[in-house]
Design brief:
- Helix 2 (11-22) crosses helix 14 (247-278), helix 10 (195-203) crosses helix 14 (247-278) and helix 15 packs antiparallel against helix 16.
- The protein is globular.
- It has helices at 2-5, 11-22, 25-37, 41-69, 73-80, 84-126, 130-137, 141-159, 163-189, 195-203, 207-210, 213-226, 233-238, 247-278, 293-307, 309-345, 350-370, 372-402, 405-412, 423-447.
- By secondary structure, it is an all-alpha fold.
- The chain has one domain: Hydantoin permease (Orthogonal Bundle), CATH 1.10.4160.10.
- The protein contains 20 helices and no strands.
- This is Putative sodium-dependent transporter.
- Keywords: Membrane, Transmembrane, Transmembrane helix, Transport.
- It is a multi-pass membrane protein.
- Pfam families: SNF (PF00209).
Length: 448
């Protein structure tokens, strides 16, 4: 069954694909400013601890369920359910994850389109097409729909090629490009005046905030969301893993890759912000808080690049190229969730299914653009703040409470006969049964 569905051909292919799914725009633009605004290295230390205390166990729940079933989330949860009512509930949870993943992609494609637009604008400036560059940088309905459509076509093009030919092959190409771009930009920015202040803010801990409940909750949320948990993306990727692979170590490599890139992004973004301040660009709000997220990416950094002349245009091109890659590696996993479900439940060809679903999601994105002022924020809030934690909670409940413990152990024993005596087995089952659900409910409560 797994071979017919498609399968990752190598360990490195899976790690690149799963890390690509986890490493998105939030890692690069959100994590660094969260750290700077919440105690610097104190937040960083708490985040690193919680990434392995929450994110890794929750990730393993999705990977183990997916590999066991070799099916989409709805079928997978049905398979491990002990009775018909919980099987029906599992099917519904899988469908909910499909819908949430599609809605996340619908707003993600809009933001990713902006990244492509700013990158193309930098390229056009280099060849002297200033008016066209200005249009790409300006907020307009036509520009937003056009760039979103370009990004969706790129995502669809990869998914139509299947698991090995599309997801795995392109992840193996895009992730090294992302890492090289990130390292190169970081090394360059660190040579600029003002960068040292950014490093100081990022790396010097304010331990008075490290014990703050608010900081802990924010670090928990950052760790949970950074791994694309709760919507079935990691479960569907897990379903494409060979039975010969050792899942606990695979999950560890994915978690480590995601965390490492988020931390590395801090060495780029925070110094870049203080370089911008050194060049006369405002980086604080009126109440003294550090600017973050969309204001940072589309206002502060472009203003910084403008102060750097022709060199700034090249840096802008490299930066938005980096951001576009980060967006694409995440979007392909989101689109794969509804595509996998539809392909497995119909006799339709993958290419046709991918285009139809991609066009539907593009239509949702267009609707958001046409009603941007109220619909954009609403979709983000409903999907990421409320739906994602609750779905992640349900995956933990199925893995920890409803799946028969012996069947779960047999899944781990497929490639590790001594799994029962491993440290992972002694800790993880009870951890995902009790600790993870409580932590996720804490994140959800804080979001309310």
């Amino acid at each position: 069954m797994a071979a017919a569905r498609g399968q990752f051909n190598s360990r490195i292919g899976f790690i690149m694909a799963a890390a690509g799914s986890a490493v998105g725009l939030g890692n690069i633009w959100g994590f660094p400013t969260q750290a700077a605004s919440n105690g610097g290295a104190a937040f960083l230390i708490v985040y690193l601890i919680l990434a392995f205390c929450l994110a890794y166990p929750a990730l393993m729940a999705e990977l183990i369920i997916g590999r066991h079933a070799h099916a989409n989330a709805s079928k997978a949860l049905e398979q491990i359910a002990p009775n018909r009512p919980t099987a029906m509930l599992g099917h519904g949870v899988g469908l909910a994850g499909l819908i949430v993943a599609s809605l996340i992609l619908s707003f993600y494609a809009i933001v990713a389109g902006w990244m492509i637009g700013f990158g193309l604008a930098a390229l056009l400036k280099l060849v002297g097409f200033g008016d066209a560059a200005l249009w790409l940088e300006s907020f307009s309905t036509a520009r937003n729909i056009g760039l979103m459509s370009v990004f969706m076509v790129l995502t669809i093009g990869i998914i139509t090629q299947g698991v090995h030919g599309g997801i795995e092959r392109w992840s193996e190409r895009l992730m090294p490009m992302l890492l090289l771009s990130l390292v190169g930009l970081t090394l360059y920015v660190l040579t600029l005046p003002g960068a040292t202040e950014g490093l100081r803010v990022y790396l010097l801990p304010d331990f008075s905030k490290a014990v703050s409940p608010d900081l802990v909750i924010k670090a928990l949320g950052a760790a949970f969301f950074s791994l694309s948990l709760g919507v079935g993306t990691m479960l569907i990727y897990g379903s494409y893993i060979s039975d010969d692979e050792h899942l606990p170590s695979l999950g560890g490599w994915v978690t480590l890759s995601d965390v490492s890139i988020a931390v590395l992004a801090g060495f780029l973004v925070l110094p870049a912000m203080y370089v911008a301040q050194h060049n006369g660009v405002a980086i604080f709000t009126d109440n003294g808080a550090l600017l973050s997220e969309d204001t940072l990416i589309f206002t502060v950094l472009p203003a910084l690049f403008d102060t750097m002349g022709s060199t700034g245009t090249l840096v802008a091109l490299a930066f938005f190229f980096l951001m576009s890659i980060a967006a694409l590696t995440s979007s392909i996993s989101m689109l794969e969730v509804p595509v996998a479900y539809t392909v497995e439940n119909t006799e339709l060809a993958r290419s046709k299914v991918t285009w139809v679903i991609g066009i539907v999601i593009g239509a949702i994105s267009t609707t958001i653009i046409l009603n941007f002022d109220w619909l954009f924020g609403l979709v983000i809030t409903v999907t990421t703040r409320y739906s994602q934690p609750l779905l992640g909670f349900m995956f933990c409940i199925y893995a920890g409470w409803l799946w028969h413990r012996n069947t779960l152990l047999q899944e781990l024993k497929k490639n590790d006969p001594n799994a029962e005596s491993s440290v992972f087995w002694k800790i993880w089952p009870n951890y995902v049964r009790i600790v993870c659900p409580l932590i996720i409910l804490g994140i959800f409560y804080q979001s309310l």
